[in-house]
Design brief:
12 strands, 7-stranded parallel beta sheet, alpha/beta, 9 helices, single chain, elongated, 260 residues, 5-stranded mixed beta sheet, 34% helix
Length: 260
């Protein structure tokens, strides 16, 4: 049954607004906010643990599980809840999955984001990691919140398919050591090699922030550093572009190691 709510001061709507604006509130409630019909369809398709779905009149969303609370609100009320400038008529709250880094990583290809602050960049990289076959993304040094609505929207549904973890440096290093995964970093050092020559079929690769690059801590523990070849007149790529190149090389090296 779909409940009708018309007051912007309704406690549920107040709670949803807090999910959109506050990282602390998201952690306290254990929920994040997703916005958009396509994103909701992805959540349903991948069996995400939905909590509440809010729509405006006339928006039809199919196959919402029966246990999920359904709310209908007027368009002006939706505009007061949605973090988007042009709401699409549907938003939802969903349980945040486990975020602690496993003691040992089960996969063979991980991307480590080191201090990336832009939620759109983090979401885009997460989406690319899912598309190109990575086993997960690990965030260190206070990256942008992966459950910020901007991050979630930029993943285009990858947030329901590919795990992401927040970890301290010691946790990360312990996890890659237990999994016997070499740690590489995209940075310049005496031992830097062209990324096209590196074997990334089993690896965890660090992408640093555009402002500060890879942190000294992770550089010290990196087995080798990687250089993306480019024109000498170009100083660097932004983090999302660099991550896409790394992920592509990971995928190519894996196919070479295990040909079809």
């Amino acid at each position: 049954m779909i409940e009708q709510i018309t007051s912007r001061k309704n406690p549920l709507l107040v709670r949803l607004r807090k999910l959109a604006s506050s990282r602390e509130e998201r952690r306290e409630q254990g929920l994040f906010l997703g916005d958009g019909i396509k994103l909701l369809e992805e959540a349903v398709a991948w069996g995400a643990p939905l909590d509440t779905v809010v729509t405006i009149p006339g928006v039809q969303v199919q196959e919402i599980p029966q246990q999920v609370r359904r709310i209908e609100v007027p368009e002006d009320v939706m505009a007061s809840i949605s973090p988007m400038q042009a709401p699409q008529g549907a938003l939802f709250s969903c349980a945040i999955p486990r975020q602690n880094c496993p003691l040992s990583l089960e996969g063979t290809r991980y991307l480590v984001l080191d201090g990336l602050q832009d939620p759109g960049n983090v979401g885009t990289i997460w989406r690319t990691a899912d598309a190109l076959g990575a086993d997960g993304v690990i965030l260190v040094h206070s990256c942008a919140d992966p459950w910020n609505p901007k991050t979630v929207r930029a993943t285009m549904g990858a947030c329901f398919r590919l795990p992401i973890y927040e970890a301290g440096v010691e946790e990360l290093l312990s996890a890659v050591e237990q999994a016997q995964l070499p740690l590489y970093a995209t940075a310049l050092r005496e031992d830097t090699v062209d990324i096209q020559t590196a074997d990334l079929s089993r690896s965890a690769v660090v992408i640093g922030s555009e402002g500060s690059g890879v942190s000294r801590e992770l550089l010290e523990y990196s087995r080798r550093t990687l250089r993306i070849p480019m024109r000498t007149r170009c100083e660097s790529l932004n983090a999302a572009s660099a991550a896409a190149v790394v992920l592509w090389e990971m995928r190519c090296k894996t196919r070479e190691a295990t040909p079809l």
